[in-house]
Amino acid sequence: MFYTKLATRNILKNKPVYFPFLFSMIFIVILNFLMYVMLKNEGMTKMPNAQAVRSMFNLGLIVIMIFSVIFSIYTNGFLNKHRKKELGLYNVLGLDKKAIGWMLFIESILSFLLSLGGGLLIGSIFSKYLFLILKKLTGFGEHFTFQLTAEMFYLTALFHAFIFLSLFLINLLSLRRANPTELLRGSNVGEREPKARWFLSVIGLICLGIGYYLSLTIESPLSALYTFFYAILLVIFGTYIVMITFSISLLKFLKNRSSIYYRPKAFINISGMLYRMKQNGMGLASICVLSTMVLVTISSTVGLFAGKEDSLRNQHPFDMQLGTQTTGEAIEPKLTELMEEYTITPDEFFVFNDYVELPTLVKEGTKFNESSQRDFLEKQKGANLNLVDMEIMTAEEYEMFSGKKIILSADDAYVYTSAEQLDELQLGTKTFQVTALDDFPFSTHEASLIDRYTVVVKDRSVLEDIVMNSQINTTIGTRIALNFTAEGDRESFVEAVSRFVQELNANAGETTEMYAYFESIDQSRKDMSELVGGFLFIGVIFSLSFIVATGLIIYYKQISEGYEDAYRFEVMQKVGMSHKEVKQTIRSQVLMVFFFPLLLAIVHLLFASPIIQKLLLIFGFHNQTLYIMVTALGILVFSLCYFIVYLQTSKIYYQIVERQHS
Fold first, then answer.
1. Which of 90, 139, 157, 634 could form a disulfide with 529 if both were Cys (CB 3.0 to 4.6 A apart)?
2. Strand (E) or helix (H) holding 571
């Protein structure tokens, strides 16, 4: 009972630092509970893209859990830093470390119960509204219904218990290692002037440079994911080293320059900044990394969501495309019948009876060979392989498609590509002399993940020669493409055509002669809404998490600096500086330290933009103007939020300084 009263009184007495800790833990409970509500919903398994969406939410849950553990340890460290004197005093007054350990254990239980209860209560209330937002963003079907199960509460409570048990063990270990003198000195331990570490500083700058270089030089979207992962690790590592060591090394360098250092303002600012960067380098680096994560998440997810219709049209120049590896006699009459049944008016209707879609090829100079699965894996790992797609049609089909007549010999070809143009093109034993096409109707080249070539040859005999002698596994087929207006039920028409193509493939048995394919912008729109909406929702959750974490770190930093600057405030006035001069000096240092992480985060984002845009190409997004607009707006909004946090926490900072000084 004694320990319970003591623990309760400690929590209330230390509310300036304890309540933000409890708030952060409640927020962590809400985040994890929300992810479980979405992930453990039964409707999640019944959606068309269930596996992809579940994988996305599973990855999101893992990120949130890792973030929760790291952030909990970080906030717990700030809390304990300002309680060392209190624990040292208890030790001096007669409580041994075992008794203090019991008190900390009771505090941990009380904090666990308060944060878990508050988090689950708030999470249960608001998860319904967030669930409806997710359903609206994604267009998830009627199977995806809101439900709360015992498993969701149990898993959240279990994970939260693991966090608090880990924090208690960390606190207990710290208590056992410390002696009463160290505890009483509290946060004043280690106030010696920091040393310059140029070797580590150079390593940090090199890490940042390599990370920036990887982002700026990436070319293939297929290898961007691996490269982005390495670039992130290098930039995070470099940011921490630069904040902790390079800033101090630079200040020490300036201090050793008498012409710079021995000036009134420079003398005070450089000396003050040395100690600020020593004590807050880790916190400032964390603020910078979290701010970068917010900006990257906003620019990518919001940009992807805003440009999803544009991306769809880039990937699908037609409302519907279907075809077979044989003639169109098997599909054209049935398609016409279905259009009449569902009152569909074709606005544009193209039938390519002589059409070859080659499998993905490896380009070596002017020669194109069929690729393998290993080539794809090597490309994803960053191998210097030039994978390309290629389609071939006859001059007659091209004329029907574009309205332009071209004359070719058997050894000539017209080629349209967004990649580097060629003078000649080799497919097996066949070599074509190439003439470049400046444009191509309904091109999807820019939306393709890899380079794409559209080749126009003389006639069907040339196509047959390519199929027979190129040593590439392909055949001549038919492709039908149309844009249409639906007076009837558009969705039912698309579903009917899809079922027809599925039946063709099912009836083909083990042969591949009747292999048919089908793609529709309507189906892709639904699939993209689910994926992109899910990404946006998780992006919002991540951004909110990182913003709250940034705000709390800033809050703790301001409290720490408030107590430390109160002493500096007094010393500066004793050596002859006026109250106004001291306040101006401290304000200038606070502003420099406060906004440096934000500026560095914006620099990180600008260097990351090329690789982010390459990753967005995977979803067909290549609207650079829209990306720039979304990124600029994201920077503006986040900077405004950051400034508001600065204003609010600065009030607390100056209250502490003035109160301690008075």
1. 139
2. helix 521-574
Collapsed DSSP state (helix, strand, coil) of residue 454: strand
Residue 17, sorted as left (phi over 0), alpha (psi -120 to 50) or beta, turns out to be alpha
**Smallest Cα–Cα separation from 131: which of 38, 27, 33?**
38
The DSSP call for residue 193 is P
CA 306 vs CA 294, 301, 309, 313: distances in Å: 17, 9, 8, 13
Total H helices, total E strands in the chain:
21, 10
CB neighbour list of residue 110: distance below 8 Å, 6 or more residues apart: 4, 7, 8, 11
CA distance 11 to 319: 63
Is residue 60 over pLDDT 80?
no
* 430 neighbors 304 (Cβ within 8 angstroms): no
The CA distance from 583 to 355, in Å, is 77
Mean pLDDT over all residues of the chain? 77
β-pair partners for 434: 413
Give the torsion sign (CA, 468, 470, 474, 476).
negative
Determine contact, residues 391/355, Cβ cutoff 8 Å. Answer: yes
Neighbours of 381 (CB within 10 A): 12
239: its two tokens: 């940011």
Q: Which of 441, 438, 439, 431 is nearest to 409 (CA)?
A: 431
- Return phi, psi of residue 425, to 5°: -140, 130
List own/partner pairs for 418-426 with CB under 8 A and 24 or more apart: 418/445, 418/446, 418/448, 418/451, 418/452, 419/388, 419/451, 419/452, 419/453, 422/366, 423/366, 424/366, 425/366, 425/368, 425/453, 425/455, 426/366, 426/367, 426/368
Helix (H) or strand (E) holding 457: strand 451-457
Q: Which amino acid is at 565?
A: D
Beta strands in 303-398 (DSSP E): 320-324, 344-364, 367-370, 387-394
Tell me, what amino acid is at 479? R
Comparing 279 with 455, the larger pLDDT belongs to 455
What are the Cα distances from residue 8, in Å, to 49, 98, 183?
A: 50, 18, 21
5: alpha, beta or left? (left if phi > 0; alpha if psi -120 to 50): alpha
Contact call for residues 321 and 481 (beta carbons, < 8 A): yes
Q: For residue 167, give the nearest of 25, 316, 356 by alpha carbon.
A: 25
What percent of the chain is predicted at pLDDT more than 70?
A: 73
Over residues 100-150, the pLDDT tens digits come to 778 878 888 888 999 999 999 988 888 777 777 777 776 666 666 777 888
End-to-end CA distance of the chain: 38
- Grouping H, G, I as helix, E, B as strand and the rest as coil, residue 550 is helix
Q: Which of these ranges, 382-386, 572-576, 655-659, has the smallest mean pLDDT?
A: 572-576
Q: Of all helices (H) and strands (E), which one includes residue 417? A: strand 412-417
Whole-Å CA distances, 44 to 52, 55, 135, 535: 10, 11, 11, 15
**Domain segments of the chain as ranges:** 1-187, 190-313+523-662, 314-522
